[in-house]
Amino acid sequence: MNVAEIKALVSLLDDEDVEVVSLVETKIRSLGGEVIPFLEDRWEDSSLSPVMQRKIEDIIHGLQYQAFIGRLQAWYETGAKDLLEGLWVIATYQYPELSLEKLRTDLDQMYFDVWQEFRDNMHPMDEVKTLNAIFFQKFKFGANTKHFHAASNSMINVVMDAKKGNPISLCAIYMLIAQKIGMPIYGVNLPSLFIVTYKSERLQFYINVFNKGIVFSKSDIDNYLAQLNLEPNDTFYEPCSNADIIRRVLRNLILSFEKVGDHDKVKELEQALQYLLD
Description:
The structure is a single chain. This protein is of the alpha+beta class. The chain folds into two domains: 3-77, no CATH class; 83-277, no CATH class. The chain contains twelve helices and six strands. Strands 3-4-5-6 form a four-stranded antiparallel sheet. Strands 1-2 form a two-stranded parallel ribbon. The chain is elongated, with a radius of gyration of 22 Å.
């Protein structure tokens, strides 16, 4: 459809004939995201009633949600190879206009700042100490203990700007920078805590990014599991996939909206999670 046809279609949303309005809504939804700017222009019309404005808001949200699901499915079905892209997809649920390229640029700058401090043939522990110093002291990333369950902790753009996040968001940024430098650092799905592991052919240890990058060993994980009365499982010691990380981010986001009673968003995100489980 051309611009004039789309504008004419949107103008029919407040037609007096209920059947006409129903047909118009169905047609608008079928057009996808391209119609959103025209709906936003219509929404700004001061003559619209609150009921009509709410109807337009609902249609816009529905279209944005369809686009979000489409991005999530496309990322997953093409191999879930790019973690940053997966985190961007999750963030577009709340920030549909968020630029993936802006996130890449910001991450590249962080990488460059860290790369400048690295030297050839550094010991893995020295690499981690260097990364920790820049990540926590220069960049000033830290745990968002005050608002631990806030939905913003699952939004990569907010965490990168505010420098505060939950365990998985901080680990994700830390890991993305480390991997870009060439460090073999990967996520680990511990119960109630997300961490990262440095794993090469000769060496493996663990890093708690949520606790200022403290380094610990397999025996520490054994003790942690014992305190939780859980049996050891390979999942708790070995790297997880990008898809695993995004599933966990989604579960955190669902919990965030459950805690504030936003049942509509809980339902939408549970449906999104199901696409990654099927």
